[in-house]
Amino acid sequence: MSVAEIRVLTPADTARMEQLLDVFGAAFEDPEHYGAARPGAAYLARLLGRDDFITIVALVDGAVVGGLAAYQLHKFERARSEIYIYDLAVAEPYRRRGVATAVIAELQDIAARRDAWVVYVQADLGDEPAIALYSKLGVREDVLHFDIPPRRRH
């Protein structure tokens, strides 16, 4: 298998973004989260047009087989930015074939062009394939992650 194309999505690529959401839902075994309340094409086009949102897909025969969604975060303590890979997944038949490495390499190129300080990603404990991939590409930091809910006022 060779990846036919690595592509950075633009506002015109909402159908490919929806395909990537399907890949995420299947890969994370969470199709409800990635499909039940999916935003419409206008929302996706606005999102894909933002300077701080980056989506890269891998295409084989025109179909999305993997990709990532990332955010560029502008720092306040220094005049620099970091790029955070929010989600990255590859469809089961295309895993361990360099797809994830190829989309991350494209993100690294984007980060260099944008003069970003670092690209970072988190992996869940027990997700050995992700941990192995990210360990090949960068330096591991062991941190704790906390989800703090918004404070809703009535």
Give a nutshell description of this structure.
With 154 residues, the protein is α+β, with helices and mostly antiparallel strands.
Number of strand elements: 5
Sequence of strands across the biggest β-sheet: 1-2-3-4-5
The helix tally amounts to 5
Count of the domains: 1
The N- and C-terminal alpha carbons lie at a distance of 54 Å
State the secondary-structure class.
Answer: alpha+beta
The arrangement of helices and strands along the chain is EHHHEEEHEH
CATH architecture: 3-Layer(aba) Sandwich
Indicate the radius of gyration in whole angstroms: 16 Å
Shape estimate = globular
- What is the CATH fold-level name? Aminopeptidase
- The proportion of residues in beta strands is 15-25%
- Kindly report the name of the CATH homologous superfamily: Gcn5-related N-acetyltransferase (GNAT)
Mean pLDDT: 90
Please give the CATH class: Alpha Beta
Fraction of residues in helices?
25-40%
Largest sheet: 5 strands, mixed
Uncertain spans, ≥5 residues at pLDDT below 50?
none
Structure description:
The radius of gyration is 16 Å and the shape is globular. Helix content is 34%, strand content 25%. A hairpin with a 2-residue loop joins strand 2 and strand 3. The chain has a single domain, classed as Gcn5-related N-acetyltransferase (GNAT) (Aminopeptidase, 3-Layer(aba) Sandwich). 22% of the residues are buried. It has a 5-stranded mixed sheet. The chain has 154 residues and is an alpha+beta fold.
